[in-house]
Specification:
α3 crosses α4, α4 runs parallel beside α5 and α9 crosses α10. The longest helix has 21 residues. About 40% of the residues lie in helices and about 20% in strands. A seven-stranded mixed beta sheet has the order 12-13-14-11-10-15-16, with helices on both faces. Strands 7-6-5-8-9-17 form a six-stranded mixed beta sheet, sandwiched between helices. The structure holds nicotinamide-adenine-dinucleotide. The site of nicotinamide-adenine-dinucleotide (NAD) has 30 residues, from α7 and α8.
């Protein structure tokens, strides 16, 4: 059984890979299990050194990895460079975190109470195709730093960067068996990881639908689970905001990565008194977005990841939109930037499109803005644009979302926690918070009584 890997911008074949099944998954879990005792016993400074070496190798192979990612996902090379830069930073960060995530001593009667942060063992990591290596690193960094060994399952469409990273990990001196990559179907390899009795935890990023299956499957072995799932985030623009700045930034908040971004601010809520002016500015800014060859340094948006995904995205646009952009002719899974005027009840405002389609929705006042923004099963991300500082804080506290930004659409950073409320998942990645979900706390009481 082989797997053909395509370049979504050209539809040309990039690679032909063996597709792993249950047997190969079991072998990877066995390898990770065998490597665990020695890996957890590596002295913290040595484990940190190995992770730092991996970070440095990612930096040294920055352009190569960026090209792999750009070609495999069809994403603009400029974006891919940013993502691979972040991968290196993530490994640097967790190299530095190895000896800073420690236990406590707690005052108790009759003795000493202390806690240890124990690694979980073998961790299964299942990641999507939109930011393949980036999202993998968010899990690999804390998992390895805490002394776990790993089986990583990249998405079937985009396994190339993960395979290359596994080579670099060996080159860095990380022992064989510590980081295993298995390429195969979610319903086979992913499911096996979820149900495998020797896998202690699943770190999952993907759709809410599959996330629900992960939870159900993990129940059988009471596996630890962290879930980073879908989103339908709101970009809330008040009339007192710098409208020019908000409108200039809004296209990148939803069309970046061709909208295939869990944080996409795909519901643009605009205060009614500023709606017409904002819509005009937004159309203009969207028109200027450069869509084309991902290998061109100036390109800002590439194609979608696959023909099947393009069909799904297209199914959301049922009526003549407010604006539809241009796309290149010829091969490639292109879909134009699309702006649609909608109500929050429309399908386009309720479901995750995961493509370059944004819904513009008017609101009357602050209370309605909050109600609309929260009227979704998701709760991942969002933005608030206003010049009123008190309002910014009030709204930020009222929004049911894990990752917000004010007068900015940027809310993902190596050192800050990332994750969702509601059906966008649970658990936090990045920052020191991610370490919590890759360790178990062990509490030990030592009697000091004579
Ligand atoms: P997906 O859920 O289809 O697949 C994600 C991963 O799960 C893939 O590796 C896939 O092979 C695997 N998988 C599929 N079925 C499985 C099963 N039955 N058992 C085990 N594993 C299975 O998602 P996708 O289409 O690759 O990615 C897009 C989705 O990911 C969107 O919903 C997006 O919002 C979400 N996402 C979330 C975040 C976040 O951090 N919250 C980040 C990126 C993407």
């Amino acid at each position: 059984m082989t797997l053909t890997i395509l370049n979504p911008a050209t539809e040309q074949r990039l690679a032909q890979l063996e597709r792993a099944g249950v047997e190969e998954t079991d072998a990877a879990v066995a390898a990770a299990r065998a490597a665990f005792p020695a890996w957890r016993a590596v002295a913290p400074t040595d484990r940190a050194r190995l992770l730092r070496r991996l970070a440095t190798l990612v930096e040294e192979h920055h352009e190569e990895l960026s090209r792999i990612e750009s070609r495999n996902v069809g994403k603009p090379i400029s974006g891919a460079r940013g993502e691979i830069g972040m991968v290196a930073q993530v490994f640097h960060f967790y190299a530095g975190a190895v000896d800073k995530h420690h236990g406590e001593t707690i005052p108790v009667a009759g003795g000493v109470d202390l806690t240890f942060r124990e690694p979980l063992g073998v961790v299964g990591l299942i990641v999507p195709w939109n930011f393949p290596l980036n999202i993998a690193s968010w899990k690999l960094g804390p998992a390895l730093a805490c002394g776990n060994t790993v089986v990583l399952k990249p998405a079937e469409l985009t396994p190339l960067s993960a395979l290359r990273l596994a080579d670099l990990a060996l080159e860095a001196g990380i022992p064989e068996g510590v980081l295993n990559v298995v390429v195969g179907k979610g319903s086979v390899v992913g499911r096996r990881l979820i149900e495998h009795p020797d896998v202690a935890k699943i770190g999952f990023t993907g759709s809410t639908e599959v996330g629900q299956e992960v939870m159900r499957g993990a129940a059988g072995t009471v596996k630890r689970v962290t879930l980073e799932l879908g989103g339908k985030s709101a970009n809330v623009v008040f009339a007192d905001a710098d409208l020019e700045q908000a409108a200039a930034a809004a296209p990148y908040a939803v069309f970046d990565n061709a909208g295939q971004d869990c944080c996409a601010r795909s519901r643009i809520l605009v205060e009614r008194s500023a709606y017409d002016r904002f819509a005009e500015l937004l159309v203009e800014a969207t028109r200027n977005l450069r869509v084309g060859d991902p290998e061109d340094d100036a390109t800002e948006m590439g194609p979608l990841v696959s023909a099947a995904h393009r069909e799904t995205v297209a199914s959301f646009v049922e009526e003549e939109p407010l604006f539809r952009g241009e796309i290149p002719e010829g091969p490639g899974f292109w879909y134009p930037c699309t702006l649609v005027e909608a109500s929050n009840q429309d399908r386009i405002a309720r479901e995750e499109v995961f493509g370059p389609v944004a819904a513009l929705i008017p609101f009357a006042d602050e209370a309605e803005a909050i109600a609309l923004a929260n009227d979704t099963p998701y709760g991942l991300s969002g933005s608030i644009w206003t010049r009123d500082g008190a309002r910014a804080l009030r709204v930020a506290r009222a929004l049911e979302a894990g990752v917000l930004s004010v007068n900015s659409n940027s809310s993902v950073r190596v050192s800050t926690p990332f994750g969702g409320f509601k059906q966008s998942g649970f658990g936090r990645e990045l920052g020191m918070h991610a370490l919590e979900s890759y360790t178990e706390i062990k509490n030990v009481f030592i009697s000091t009584e004579e």
